[in-house]
């Protein structure tokens, strides 16, 4: 069974209401899936919590299911959010067994906090594409088109990984975009494009794929060299380090490869 | 006669204390995290200044919009009765309880390029998408109920008796409104406007969804904080503290506005001094 | 010329019609909920009648329910209203309150202020011109409100229990002021107090359950009440008389010294409560009391007290005393009235017949 926790923004803020609940004599426990909870007794299994970048939502949901099928008794709880959100939570002491990040620098910040059990392994790559509304009203066919005056192009802000990647694409292709908005997340970029508010948005190939019919992807051969690497690692705080390592192996293995490729991710 | 303080059951005090802590402690915790040695550079960076200025400008404009449209709305709700008035009132107050993102989506489908009015606006040469206007619209949308609510309540409290007197003295409807009604509810209008301003200043969800985020144009302080958090948590915390301080000032100002007509007389009598000989 | 009024108001089950001459003052009396204030609101234009028609000095106030529907806006009726509460605009000074009406009617600011000053002087509070309403006492505020109502020179002045909210210590002075300003003015006053009716009004109209149950000249209605309410109204002893050199001389022989400066011959009315009149077989006039000797006309047993009627006065005594003195009709008694228990006012009109005492039966 897969449990998805609601996105927890800053775990610290959650402590106080929890304390209030305790004062009131109400138990807030049980929802977290403590180890041993409704376990089948199979020694193979273990409950692990995986923190994964938001862009991994679809492949990791499928992978967790497959992992549970392959390891009877295993239970994977997934928590998806922006990579840097997750890293902040981990550094602040959030309990998790595995971390999968959308870029290497975020993983690096967790490693500096000495939370990694072993070296991170790059398991997927991602490149950027232009997303345009299905009817492509501005007739975008290339990055140059997106840079034309009067074309409303939206990118991620440089502070977030997709924005950093966009900046590298601009540098590599020598095209200067004048975006009308620098959004905080891929979701916001896609939202502006799919609603027709923007003419084009620079996002990951996998985001375009995940958005389905809502947007049309314009491949950018000139941006193929700008590759984002996704590293994964087990964490030192894990109570189920065996299961955690098993999950990492599963993701980097053939099963993982197939699922990720289907979602549009490139090979490492 | 001696007044004694009203005694409350102890558990009420305990729960009240827990509730107060619940509100205050997170603010304290945040203040503790501020990188004080670098506080000034953090909050005076170019992007922070741009965001703060934009926030102040747009919030003022949104407050002005709220006053221009909210005062007539409150008057209509408080002084007239018509079929569907209850429903209208509920709808007007909806932005209070709606998640701001929902507000943003709704605005998008109204004023967006492909929205209900988008085509009309485009032919008129008005382009709202990704403009500061979009920010102001988002803020006004979420802030309007505050003004309408506080003003309508005040209008109902004041009643129509003064207005009736004004009318029998020969004042036109406009004169009654200008010289009687509005002065009577001025304190509520001011505090409503202040609350609207505060709400506009804090607007995040609708702006993010509807207006986008570009430094100096649409990236208000809350959006800047949200973005800074990705890479520079210290800056985010410092800017958050600025917003908290502004919010405290604004709420304080709203509470200082006194109702008309009684400085000294309206105050409750000073509590009597308790006898020293009494029990603890 | 004057006022003609006929209206129904379904919400309050009201159906009232009456006429007034210009310069006349009409008192509307009646129990709570009788519809008194509704009549004023209909006149002022604050309520719209279900049906009816009213004209003031030839101008239509409303004409509803017939062929057409005419409703003159309150501000164009030339009617001003003084309510129980002064309702001074709290954000304006006393002077600005009074100037509000003239200003609203287009009088230039300085002229309006000058007029306001004049009216404040007229009601005796010129020195309070720059105070805010919250700095005024109830009596002062009501004076300012009166000035405000008069400053628009209304064709008709409506007064809705103008004394009811005032402290008893200031009502006599305010009552005299009203009496002064209502001379020759067309006014309708709603009141509970028969004294107000007596002093201020030429005619009385008694409302009960939304209908007129009695109407006529004040003295007539109050001396010969035909309804229970009218009788209750008349519970107060009212004695008409004149100013003599030393004081008040009533038609029934009562004499009370007065310290006022009214000219001799002024028509006056004296009011005294039945409970304040002592009954004995032989009373002695003293420095502080008047005595009227008369034969008992009637003895009325009213539960815990006995009401004696004599010399047009009603006096309440304890049943034990009534038995002890053997009080029966025809017995000669002395009615003792302490000077401190009476109130004496000039009556509204000289031409009101004098010398007649009035006493009610029942309260």
Describe this structure in words.
The complex is a heterotrimer of chains A (268), B (280) and C (363). Chain A has 268 residues and is α/β, with parallel strands linked by helices. Chain A folds into 2 domains: 119 residues, D-Maltodextrin-Binding Protein, domain 2, CATH 3.40.190; 98 residues, Periplasmic binding protein-like II (D-Maltodextrin-Binding Protein, domain 2). Chain A is built from 10 helices and 11 strands. Chain A is elongated and about 55 Å long. The relative contact order of chain A is 0.18. About 15% of the residues of chain A have low confidence. Chain B has 280 residues and is an all-alpha fold. Chain B has one domain: MetI-like fold (Orthogonal Bundle), CATH 1.10.3720.10. Helices cover 71% and strands 0% of the residues of chain B. Chain B contains 12 helices and no strands. The longest helix of chain B is centred in the N-terminal third of the chain and has 34 residues. Chain B is globular, with a radius of gyration of 23 Å. The C terminus of chain B is likely disordered. By secondary structure, chain C is of the alpha+beta class. In chain C, the strands form 4 sheets. In chain C, strands 7-8-9-3-10-11 form a 6-stranded mixed sheet, with helices on both faces. In chain C, strands 12, 13, 14, 15, 21 and 22 form a 6-stranded antiparallel sheet that branches. In chain C, strand 10 and strand 11 form a beta hairpin. The relative contact order of chain C is 0.12. The interface between A and B is medium-sized, with 27 and 31 residues.
């Amino acid at each position: 069974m897969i449990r998805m926790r609601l996105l927890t923004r800053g775990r610290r803020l959650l402590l106080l209401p929890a304390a209030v609940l305790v004062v009131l004599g109400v138990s807030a426990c049980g929802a977290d899936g403590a180890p041993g909870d409704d376990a089948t007794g199979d020694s193979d299994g273990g409950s692990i919590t995986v923190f994964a970048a938001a862009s991994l939502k679809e492949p990791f949901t499928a992978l967790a299911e497959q992992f549970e099928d392959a390891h009877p008794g295993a239970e994977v709880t997934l928590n998806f959010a922006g990579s840097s959100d997750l890293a902040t939570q981990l550094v602040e002491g959030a309990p998790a067994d595995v971390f999968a990040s959308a870029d290497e620098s975020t993983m690096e910040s967790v490693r500096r906090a000495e939370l990694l059990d072993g070296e991170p392994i790059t398991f997927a790559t991602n490149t950027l594409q232009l997303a345009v509304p299905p009817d492509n009203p501005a007739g975008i066919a290339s990055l140059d088109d997106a840079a034309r005056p009067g074309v409303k192009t939206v990118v991620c802000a440089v502070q977030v990984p997709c924005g950093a990647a966009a900046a590298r694409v601009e540098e590599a292709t020598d095209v200067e975009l004048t975006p009308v908005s620098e959004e905080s997340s891929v979701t916001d970029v896609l939202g502006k494009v799919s609603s027709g508010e923007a003419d084009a948005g620079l996002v990951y190939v996998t985001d375009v794929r995940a958005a389905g019919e809502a947007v049309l992807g314009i491949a950018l051969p000139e941006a193929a060299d700008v590759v984002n690497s996704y590293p994964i690692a087990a964490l030192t705080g894990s109570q189920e380090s065996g299961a955690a390592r098993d999950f990492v192996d599963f993701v980097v293995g053939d099963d993982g490869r197939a699922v990720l490729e289907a979602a549009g991710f490139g090979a490492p | 006669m001696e007044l004694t303080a009203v005694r409350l059951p102890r558990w009420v005090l305990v729960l009240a204390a827990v509730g107060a802590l619940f509100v205050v402690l997170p603010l304290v915790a945040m203040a503790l995290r501020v990188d004080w040695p670098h506080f000034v550079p953090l909050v005076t960076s170019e992007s922070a200044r741009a965001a703060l200025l934009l926030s102040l400008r747009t919030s003022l404009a949104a407050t002005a919009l709220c006053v221009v449209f909210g005062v007539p709305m409150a008057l209509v709700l408080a002084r007239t009765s018509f079929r569907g008035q209850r429903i209208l009132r509920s709808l007007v107050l909806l932005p209070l309880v709606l998640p701001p993102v929902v507000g943003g989506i709704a605005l998008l489908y109204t004023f967006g390029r492909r929205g209900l009015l988008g085509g009309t606006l485009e032919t008129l040469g008005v382009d709202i998408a990704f403009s500061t206007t979009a920010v102001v619209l988002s803020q006004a949308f979420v802030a309007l109920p505050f003004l309408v609510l506080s003003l309508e309540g005040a209008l109902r409290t004041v009643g129509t008796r003064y207005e009736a007197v004004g009318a029998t003295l020969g004042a036109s409807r406009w004169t009654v409104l200008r010289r009687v009604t509005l002065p009577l509810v001025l304190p509520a209008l001011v505090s409503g406007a202040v609350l609207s301003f505060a709400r506009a200043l804090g607007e995040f969800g609708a702006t993010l969804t509807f207006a986008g985020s570009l430094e100096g144009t649409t990236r208000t302080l809350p959006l800047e904080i949200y973005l800074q958090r990705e890479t520079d948590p210290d800056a985010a915390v410092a800017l958050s503290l600025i917003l908290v301080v502004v919010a405290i000032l604004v709420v304080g100002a709203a509470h200082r506005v006194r109702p008309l007509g009684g400085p000294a007389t309206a105050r409750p009598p000073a509590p009597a001094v308790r006898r020293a000989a009494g029990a603890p | 010329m004057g006022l003609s009024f006929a209206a129904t108001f379904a919400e309050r089950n009201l159906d009232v019609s009456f006429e007034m001459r210009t310069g006349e003052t009409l008192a509307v009396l009646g129990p709570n909920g009788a519809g008194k204030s509704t009549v004023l609101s209909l006149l002022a234009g604050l309520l719209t009648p279900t049906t009816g028609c009213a004209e003031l000095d030839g101008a239509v106030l409303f004409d509803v329910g017939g062929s057409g529907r005419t409703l003159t806006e309150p501000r164009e009726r030339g009617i001003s209203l003084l309510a129980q509460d002064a309702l001074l605009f709290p954000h304006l000074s006393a002077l600005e309150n009074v100037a509000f009406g003239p200003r609203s009617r287009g009088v230039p600011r300085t002229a309006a202020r000058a007029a306001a000053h004049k009216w404040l002087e007229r009601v005796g509070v010129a020195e309070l011109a720059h105070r805010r309403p919250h700095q005024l006492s109830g009596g002062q505020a009501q004076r300012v409100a009166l000035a405000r109502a008069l400053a628009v020179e209304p064709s008709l002045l409506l007064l809705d229990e103008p004394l009811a909210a005032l402290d008893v210590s200031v009502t006599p002075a305010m009552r005299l002021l009203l009496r002064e300003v209502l001379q020759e003015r067309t006014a309708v006053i709603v009141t509970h107090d028969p004294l107000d009716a007596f002093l201020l009004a030429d005619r009385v109209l008694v409302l009960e359950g939304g209908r007129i149950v009695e109407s006529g000249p004040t003295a007539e209605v109050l001396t010969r009440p035909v309804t229970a309410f009218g009788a209750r109204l008349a519970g107060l002893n009212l004695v008409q008389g004149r100013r003599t050199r030393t004081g008040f001389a009533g038609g029934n022989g009562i004499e009370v010294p007065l310290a006022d400066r009214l000219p001799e011959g002024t028509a006056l009315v004296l009011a005294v409560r039945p409970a304040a009149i002592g009954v004995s077989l032989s009373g002695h006039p003293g420095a502080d009391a008047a005595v009227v000797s008369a034969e008992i006309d009637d003895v009325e047993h009213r539960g815990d007290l006995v009401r004696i009627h004599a010399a047009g006065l009603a006096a309440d005594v304890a049943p034990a005393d009534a038995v002890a003195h053997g009080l029966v009709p025809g017995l000669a008694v002395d009615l003792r009235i302490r000077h401190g228990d009476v109130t004496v006012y000039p009556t509204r009109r000289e031409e009101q017949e004098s010398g007649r005492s009035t006493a009610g039966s029942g309260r």
